[in-house]
Specification:
With 107 residues, the protein is α+β, with helices and mostly antiparallel strands. The chain has 2 domains: 1-27, no CATH class; 31-102, TusA-like domain (Translation Initiation Factor IF3, 2-Layer Sandwich), CATH 3.30.110. The protein is 28% helix and 22% strand. The protein contains 3 helices and 4 strands, in the order αβαβαββ. It has helices at residues 10-18, 44-53, 70-80; strands at residues 33-35, 60-65, 84-91, 96-102. Strands 1-2-4-3 form a 4-stranded mixed beta sheet, covered by helices on one side. The longest helix has 11 residues, at 70-80. The radius of gyration is 16 Å and the shape is globular. The relative contact order is 0.16.
Length: 107
Amino acid sequence: MADIQIHRSREHASASAASGGCACGGHDEDIPELDVQTIPHAIRHAAIFGAVESLHPGGGLVISATHNPVPLLNQLADRHGSDYSTEYLTSGPERWRILIRRTQVRP
């Protein structure tokens, strides 16, 4: 289990985060995989974009879906151009897994 740190204020938490990461105390060493079927449909694309847009340059995540998420990937390209790269790791027929990696620093 991760070590939990309790801070007296947001300022203390921010200072802790500034010294090497977020203040949550957790750090992913591997590329996380997000099974998008577990996200309610009404908020699915917004949740995926939230996860993707939180990536640091060079960071990535794998999205996993039961269909080819072409509309989502088109929206990603429309919103961010070449700021992200995509690579199909698995191409159906039962599961599609796509690695999305942040390649550029946003202004």
